## 1
Amino acid sequence: MADRKLGLKEKYQLMTRGLDWETTYQPMDKVFPFDKYEGIKIKDWSKWEDPFRLTMDAYWKYQSEKERKLYAILDSFSQNNGQLNISDARYMTAIKLWAQGITPLEYYAHRGFCHVGRHFRGAGARVACQMQALDELRHAQTQMHAFSHYNKYFSGLHQAIHMRDRAWYLSIPKSFFEDALTSGPFEFVTSISFAFEYVLTNLLFMPFVSGAAYNGDMATTTFGFSAQSDESRHMTLGLEVVKFVLEQHEDNVPIMQRYIDKWFWRGYRLLALVGTMMDYMLPKKVMSWAEAWGIYWEENGFALFNDLSRYGIRLPKYHEIATKEKLHITHQAWNVFYTACPATGFHAWLPQPYEMDWLSEKYGETFDRFYRPRYELFGEMEKAGKRFYTNRLPFVCQTCQVPDFFTEVDNPMKQAVRHHEWRGMKFNFCSDGCKDIFVNEPEKFCQSYIPPQQIYQGNAGGARTLQEYAAWLHCPMGSDAGDYYSSDDYKNWLKWHGGRDTSPTTAAA
Amino acid sequence: MAYQLTIEPLGETIEVADNQRILDACLRAGIWLPYACNHGLCGTCKVQVLEGEIEHTEEASSFALMDLEREEGKCLACSSILVTDCVIEAEIEPEPDAKNFPIRDFFATVARIEALTPTIKGIFLEVAEGGLQFQAGQYVNVSVPGVEGPRAFSIASSPSTPGEIELNVRRVDGGAATDYLCERLKVGDRVSCSGPLGRFFVRDSAPEPMVFLAGGSGLSSPKSMILDLFECGETKQVTLIYGARTRAELYCVDLFQALAARYPNFRYVPVLSEPTPNDAWEGETGLVHEAAARHFKVLFDGLKAYLCGPPPMIEACIRTLMQGRLFERDIYTEKFLTAADAAEGLAKSPLFRRL
Ligand SMILES: Cc1cc2nc3c(=O)[nH]c(=O)nc-3n(C[C@H](O)[C@H](O)[C@H](O)COP(=O)(O)OP(=O)(O)OC[C@H]3O[C@@H](n4cnc5c(N)ncnc54)[C@H](O)[C@@H]3O)c2cc1C
Ligand code: FES
Ligand SMILES: [Fe+2]
Ligand SMILES: [Fe+2]
Ligand SMILES: [Zn+2]
């Protein structure tokens, strides 16, 4: 036995746990002040199973190699004017939304994992979170670098961070992550590592990265693959955290259930933006939102929750509503994008005939009955020179901050609104899911920074009109906002292609 | 054509078909490897090739597995196939209690057949050439004339009698092989076998008391394991909860009662789910997991549990054990899967490794 080879687990434990000690000058509770107030009980941190065993040495080696590869491809992409090979300039709306909405979240993730990488009492969990913090910083940086080439040719990419703090629609991802960041450490990892990076990640990454590939965007495809090769660690961390916490104490089960309910619903609401990208912004389609929901949630998600049910965890509350809504939400969201695009940092348009047919095929009756007629009406208005723009800012949900465009599940003609009174104030919500989240944490969510309200109160640089708001956003109509076909992006695209509109005429890649 | 794949640090060897992904072969053989995307993108399933040659399939992303890693002989188990016999090293825990007896193909002669219950036959097979060395709990694959593919049956006898191994075979409705074994097999017939197989064995180095939960012909492995334990002078507390439908389906009662009388640290709890009035049953009733919950007052913390029998019974027991705060690291199972279970197999998530 003396010369028995150390198993990888033992080797890794020697390297990581050995760095940890019980403090003596200060009580441990003062050194780790945040890991108890949530009520999560940890009896024995030594039961933590490392979700991955990567030494710092190996980490640097692999990551630097990934960077070398990625930047070589990005360089050749720009040298070869790769921006000219994308399927159509409309595709850029997907990239803009990602750069404005998701890339800042990568940076938030970096900050969040730095925080919990300091504040978990267990050294194994700290090490895992610290490595993830580095990954997330890398994701933010590589995305910005990949997009910076596009920024030379297209609008809307010039000031993502500035816009994140000002644009009404970007408060959806921003508030999502700020909610997570300001939670306790266990809620943070449950929300991000488990709910977002494990349960919902395939709905975010797969469509986006495959969408990039289908639409000739090699730069994005490559950083997508590069980031996904880090995601394995993030997903396994998510699974390990949930198992560990559930096994440590039975009192943790209801707390984790509440986190799972909350973050499933918040994540799902955020993904409405991604679904809209899949169904409307990609000129070449990968799959529909409804199909992706079917595969990644109804199949894979159910398998996971079937396993979780052994711990006494049930499917997230309102999951059946999310499934029923899959036939509606993306159409409702695009309708808002189309009509409100002057107050955004991207362009919108009416689906082209081949896209209308694709939507009919994918959504059948719901599309033909409820949404096609609306687009046809908008089309007639465009022809008559009266392109419809909404002239108000939307009313948004106090929790998810999505505008009030969702409808009742069983009645797509009726707007869904919920109200709740708290301390003499009336709060409005898009759904029972969002209302429940508020009711559980009213002190937190009464503070939500609701952009349209702030704008109307004069807190958007005093803007009173849409034009003034667009100027404050640094996204004027025509160059950065408004209809695609009257945009600079479209004009330039035609110019670069000898006056030819390159839009595909079929959805297939 | 099939290749042999040895997985270190387990030292276990399995067969991998042409064009079969390594991960798929391992998971099907009951060997858990870490994985997540199953699609060459995430790198979770990275393993080191120690000997032999593999081929990376196109799915293996050049970021999930970089050139420098390929040169070091790494591969993604979910996205590579074998080109020769191979040895790989995976990030899994070594099993200090595994005995890793070599697997071999052999013929055995039917020495005796006993009707243990109306549906279960005890089949005693004589193994020549010194018999079959196996670890209590393991199974053999048996090939039946005219039936495609082998079928798994756990060895019910103790490893101390390697010259004659006992199988307990339950006749499955519409089951080709079990019908043959239970109805047509005769003393003196020769049966083609391979084994020993499987990783269901007692974790002897663990200090915890043990509970065995068995149903139907799933008594086979636990019987072998318990016989072996007491032949080797076991001192930890051992409990066997064994479920059958009726008194007639309950077998080996005398054997276990005698063991319980002789060893104060052995407890035997038979439980009937549908006793008939004629059974005049005064013992436990209900299903195995219900009896276990009553017996341990839904507190299983601090035990090692060994579960053996049909998949629904195993699943019910896992849920009860977890409710009673016993988790994956302390639960070992042998699921008596049939072709019907495999066909309706519910998709699994990577949440659990072995369960
Ligand atoms: C590791 C292990 C150990 C085992 N140990 C034992 C043991 O000790 N004792 C014991 O009695 N059993 C044991 N089993 C179970 C035993 O292997 C099965 O009962 C046996 O394989 C059944 O074979 P069969 O040819 O009789 O049935 P099969 O012909 O394989 O059919 C089994 C059932 O599936 C149905 N079926 C067949 N093909 C399909 C299909 N394609 N789709 C849907 N349904 C189908 C049949 O109608 C039948 O109901 C063990 C199983 C495993 C995996
Ligand atoms: S499991 Fe993700 S690469 Fe193999
Ligand atoms: Fe990331
Ligand atoms: Fe991540
Ligand atoms: Zn909402």
## 2
Amino acid sequence: MAEPAATFLAEAVHHQWTAFPELSNLCYVHGRPAGSPAATVTVPVRPERAELRVWEGIEMVKVGRAQVWRRTSGAAAPHRYSAASLVRHGLTHEPWPRVWRQVPLRPAYDAVIVGAGIHGLATAYHLAKDHGITKVAVVDRGYVGGGNSGRNTAIVRSNYLTPEGVRFYDRSVKLYEALSAELNFNVMFEQRGHLTLAHNDSSLRTMVWRAEVNKLVGVDSSVIGPEEIKRLVPYLDTSTETRYPILGALYHPPGGTIRHDAVNWGYARAADALGVEIHQGVEVLAISTTGDRVRGVVTSAGEIATPIVVNCTAGHASLLCDMVGVSTPVVTHPLQAAVTEPVKAFLSAVVVSGSLHVYVSQTDRGELVFGASTDPYASYSTRGSLEFTEELASHVLALMPGISKIRLLRQWAGLCDMTPDFSPIMGITPVEGFLLDVGWGTYGFKAGPASGEAMATLVATGKTPELIAAFDLARFAEGRLVGEKGAASVGH
Amino acid sequence: MIQIPCPYCGLRNANEFASTGEVKPRPDVATATPAVWRAYLYDHRNPEGLVTEGWYHRAGCRKFLVVERHTQTNEIRSARPAGVAS
Ligand SMILES: Cc1cc2nc3c(=O)[nH]c(=O)nc-3n(C[C@H](O)[C@H](O)[C@H](O)COP(=O)(O)OP(=O)(O)OC[C@H]3O[C@@H](n4cnc5c(N)ncnc54)[C@H](O)[C@@H]3O)c2cc1C
Ligand SMILES: [Zn+2]
């Protein structure tokens, strides 16, 4: 494989350095000579002034105060993070090498994955790791984690309503439990417990239903009363005089939160280390087919030949499907969330209230993260709205009157690919080679590891794994919906 | 907040309305197969652009409207009573 000479040259120009030919495959330029203005300075570098340092899988050229890094082999050996490497870097002040490579697009791949969110990245990682398929490109019109995978509220749980759903999400929770070690990246998965409050008889009934299905599949889940809720979350208003008194809750001890960026970056880095290429800023504009078979994709950076295209584009899923004429039930709705200034830790569990349309958790930094249901109409706009914040604040305060003085820091939105049954769509389509990993709506971050594993198996073997068979596209035409609305519409 | 020009009530905030989704022709009850019904129920165009959709003015005149809206900018092009040709 050609080393990224072009990329280096582009970067060298960008950083106002003159490249020297024998080092033309460098991929990282760091620093500027002392006192040089930011614009239009060309610094000629004489090779004899350059000092070369070599580590496992990476080397650095030092010229004065400037440093130039490169990976030493095509599939770069991963730079292992450890306490020792932290100390070494701390003592030597050497910059950390780039976490994944930036390489030019090749003319052909064994598979092209569209979307560098958790679903695309996890699929690529498992393709390389479990099946040895590494000639894979993950292309994204934005950047890694710039979609919903960097905008979600990072709740991970498996207490769903249908046996198919519970089994699937449970596999994901199991993979998450081992993910930090697997990826050599701390994903900060904290199983702090997850509470879904019931404020009326009918939601209490749904909680009991869910608890029984969960237990049957072997997931730790039970219905608890107000006293135990108060013990777990002392700041909740559990009095009986409120408009929406708390009658009970579905308690799910293995549920919790994770650091979403770390998961995205960890998967990107691990996939890259196995040889997968990640191409940011590359948009898929069209998909070419011969008969009913995928032949390649047309991107903003040129055409690529490939027999496999995996659609992992969340809110843009139906636009990609339009390119090959596959119709889906996906409707794109914005989902907003908000975060407060940090305060002292007082909330350990994740608390969800379906009737009040809110959920809240506290991050390690102390911020409170709030979320709710999707905006009430379809849209591709990620603009936040005041009515969302107003409603959110009033509902949160009904649950926790004590936090009325905390200020909101910011709010944002992502574009959710909603399906009629609140379950995802994974698997084949009428177009051979065009695969779906979409319909993740407001609940798909927790699913990334399990869907990545299953989608990779589907790509590699051509057979749909049992675990995801119920979530096929054909279920809508055949009337086999997997109804998860009762477990997924508010608590994501 | 986006606002919808209700032909009966004038310009009103969108939260007075309920969106009922894309407007599409209903299959013939007498001849439609289950597959046709399901496609009618579940399949959507979901365009990033102009969409013709239904809105119900629940906190106003309680009439159903047909609205043309751009799904990227949320700009509303037109709103007319449902069942009336444009
Ligand atoms: C506010 C909010 C809160 C949420 N909370 C939770 C939660 O607590 N728990 C949970 O499990 N889930 C949650 N979710 C849902 C979760 O974030 C998503 O389901 C999940 O991240 C989807 O991942 P993805 O990889 O499929 O898509 P994304 O991360 O959205 O990635 C899709 C990528 O595709 C790219 N793309 C689109 N079109 C093209 C094109 N034509 N060419 C190239 N690239 C393209 C985009 O740039 C984007 O980066 C939440 C979502 C939101 C918005
Ligand atoms: Zn009206």
## 3
Amino acid sequence: MTDSIYDEIEIEDMTFDKDRGLYTYPCPCGDRFEILLDDLRDGEEIAVCPSCSLMIRVIFEAGDLPRVEKEGLKGKMEAAVAVAVSA
Amino acid sequence: MNISLKGNSGCHQLCTMWADVAASMLYAFGSNGRGQLSLGHLEDAHTPTPCLIPSLLPSVPPCVIAAGGNHTVLLFPSGECFAAGDNTGNQCCLPSATFPSLTAFHPISSYHRWEHVSAGWSFTVLIDYEGKIFVSGKGQKGELGLGEDRHDALLEEIADFSPRKVIQVVSGMAHTLLLTASGDVWGWGAGRKGQLGEPTQSIVSRPRKVEVGFPVSKLDCGKDFSILVSRDNPQHIAILGNDRYRIGDSLASWSGAEILDIQASWNGVYLLETSGTINAWGKNDKGQLPPPSLEGITDIAVGSEHALAIAEDRTTKERKIITWGWGEHGNCGKPGGGDVIGEVFSLDIPAPRNVRIGAGCATSFVWVEE
Ligand SMILES: [Zn+2]
């Protein structure tokens, strides 16, 4: 598994798309590695590229993730979206 | 990555060298999800494929092939520039509303004669013959150099900034460096890893002087580091920023031979010595570093995680174009695609005297006179 980890990237270097609740980081193939904020919250740390086999490990502290402030009806995602991240 | 062909040489002299025009061909292969190979479609190409070329593209060799994340920019000795690929952020210097992506090279503003160009992940930097510096594209980390809170631009001049006589511009993923004739370096963009020198600032939103400690003669940007070669002899080399692969330590024991060209991949540094050998350091899990036996190398083009070179046989003088490294998108030109590890792959393209190579994010370009 470690073989296929292309790089380890600090979350501060990733871009957060608030609308999609998605962290991304450029992949050397031209596409972007992606991981959902929700998945990071669930302890997942591997971001994948939809266009190639490469993956990165995201370096982050669970406590530093943007918090879910208000949980809507089933709007966990939407709530996360509303939380601004300091880049 | 910015591939400055023939080192730092300006474009002017190529113009006169190339009086009688022969037929030429531009080939591209590799990742093409946004049309960055200028093939007229969005499919990857696993072997060198003739590009779709507008009739007004000069038939002389381009002096720069600058490849960003998903766009490619060609600069010609005439000062004309052409771009292809992703333009959703105006990185091809055209309004994205009209042209969200370009699957074939399209001219960039004919109101300017361009002298230098570089391409980052989603932005382009252009300098005209008057020394005016323009940016186009988007970025959240100061990539445009236009100041705080400026995250997109359509071919906009960086005002109040005119360093004297820029001789080269290079961009990494999110930072840009300018080299002046006096050996000074200016930079802007992402600086969190120290790639723009001290003091470390995560976002350098306007150009600032990069303190290197010596006058610089050659430079390039890696993904999040800068590599700079001194002007004095013997030359020494400094790396600024992320040095996860301890390239700085390796450089300390480098022999100090004369350097013809220096280029950075996303995670490596490639030194082409005038002797025709390549010294390279950095990430090597996919064969990114060339086999040590290579010789007779006259040119290199380093992409994100792969490279191209022109190799000349010492005795027969026969030239060939070789590739190595990560080739998942067919960017090493091997039929069927795939990495080239511990060896090189020779492209099935004749390599005449006039040949140019370029490489970007899993993209490869070869210009040949036919
Ligand atoms: Zn990828």
## 4
Amino acid sequence: MNDVVPETHDVDMAVSDEVAISIESMNKWFGTFHVLRDIDLTVYRGERIVIAGPSGSGKSTLIRCINALEEHQAGKITVDGTVLSSDIKNIDRIRSEVGMCFQHFNLFPHLSILENCTLAPIWVRKTPKKEAEEIAMHFLEKVKIPEQADKYPGQLSGGQQQRVAIARSLCMRPRIMLFDEPTSALDPEMISEVLDTMVQLAEEGMTMLCVTHEMGFARKVANRVIFMDEGQIVEQNEPEEFFNNPKSPRTQLFLSQILGH
Amino acid sequence: MSDTHAHSVAYVRETQLPQQPPPTIETGAVKWVRQNLFNGPWGSLLTLVSLYVIYLILAGSLPWLLNGVWTTSNIRECREVLDGATGGCFSVLSERWNQLLFGIAYPSDQYWRPTVAFVLLIAALAPVLFMHLPRKLLIFTGLYPFIAFWLIWGGTIMVPIVALIGVGVGYAVYNRYVADSFAMGFFGGVAAAMVTWWLGGFVIGAMPGFIALEAVPSRDMGGFMLNMILGVVCVSLSLPLGIMLALGRQSSMPIIKWICVVFIEFIRGVPLITLLFVANVVLAYFLPPGTNFDLILRVIIMITMFAAAYIAEVIRGGLAALPRGQYEAADSLGLDYAQSMRLIILPQALKISIPGIVNVAVGLFKDTTLVSVISMFDLVGMIRGPILASTDWNGVYWELWLFASMLFFVVCYGISQYSQWLERQLATDHR
Ligand SMILES: Nc1ncnc2c1ncn2[C@@H]1O[C@H](COP(=O)(O)OP(=O)(O)OP(=O)(O)O)[C@@H](O)[C@H]1O
Ligand SMILES: [Mg+2]
């Protein structure tokens, strides 16, 4: 245990004025169901954004649109200066720049931990195998499970699997990381080990968008909390303001529900 | 403890007795027999009945097997030797050994060629079947089809060489252009290979005797060799075709999806035997007169399509069993379609599909005997036709069919054992 243990004070990282992601009046439908309505969002490099909101409000759909796991029907999404279009080359490029962690980890069960981490660098980045393995070990050390490198995902605990999933994304050296409820499939005692890893990432200046119900994490790490309801961004603010002075009644209701007991 | 109860209780054991070995009736063979064979009156009765059945079978077959005749040259001599005693006329196997294996028409001084091809087949399959063997051996596997073709069919060595060069040129062109677009690479590669083969045709025509083996036409192939040729070729072709059909059926491109669905549903809805008749007769109508479209090739195409349709459905089941998260994880890492299929989706889907694929492969191998119906002399065709119809061996059914069954059984049982071993090797997901 050294410098990576999260400090008690808030993560205080400089946010640059360089735009990492910009979303302009984006709309999405599932069939006739209007999931996302007129989303406008600009994320600057180095920002840590937490997205909160009731179930079914479109949080997952929003961040999945950013790496084109879901297609949007109207509006414009620009990631790292590249406009998301339906061009496959374009999409693959953006995906290799944007890391994503899923609620259910989605590790590849037929590959060892090390192979999980080296696969994309070798095939997408064309990194030589040796070098990819060094990078992978570096990040596995960072998430504190280098000793598991030769095991298979099925042999690891949930918390360890999620940390491997984070390491796997980091091996692609992404400039932006998306998290979709990374801790909600975990037992309580494993949540903190994953959150520690995420705090560490934030301290290193990673641009992060994180859907989570961990309000402690939001208070400590986020520089902005976004509240979504019924496919709209209802309110966004700094965490202090957001939790102490929610403006919209829907936010107040939501906060009273999740913090109230 | 004994202090307190010594007066109130009649007897208290004060020392621990050493452990005794269990009575003989509870150990070893005796116990096993009691528990498994004579476990209650019904169990005992069943055991006795089974033993009696086994006795009947052995009493009937053992004398026939052990007392068999191996050296006579026809059935009458065999019956004389037996002189009324029970015994099999296995001499039909020794006398017709070569016909059973190679058919009637294959030149007898050339039997070494298919034999060598068979031995090399084992060497070519080894690195495919056993993943821990050095990957370099796969080079030989890649060359094997050309070598085997030359060995079995003969002719000038230029034919397989030109074929190989064509494949090489096609692959080079494909590699060069596939980065730009898959369609361009694919069709460019096919076109380049075609042109090479067309040009190579002139070279072959100019030097027909260059390092030539005696040419054996397809209609002279027969016996178990024909079953092996059809089985090996069709299994190895139908697996990749089946994978492509399964992926095509999942495709988001409607035309590709539609073609695959129609193909699969049509082929699965038709008996194999009708496809073979089509191959035998009807295809000839569609071809320009004078084209000599090899019969074995036609049969291979039909059996391959048939097996591929089934394999495609088996693999589709495997694909459907994968959670959507696997596709999404592969996508989110920036793998393209071909990479995510090859590295993530197919390895897992194929592993799930192994039992089903083996099922199809074993069925296909046995179905190669159906070609006897379109008057090709495979093992079954040989037995039914030339051997049983001859006056020498008319009537030795048991010996011949037992032999044929054993040959197929050995191969199919081997495939099945291999697949179970492979499943254990691949069990890494610890679910
Ligand atoms: N593939 C889909 N097809 C149709 N509807 C969908 C699809 N995916 C999500 N939806 C719907 O879109 C809405 C938003 O879903 P989304 O998963 O984005 O919500 P969420 O805010 O992430 O909720 P949760 O907190 O439960 O994860 C939900 O009503 C959901 O039912
Ligand atoms: Mg969600």
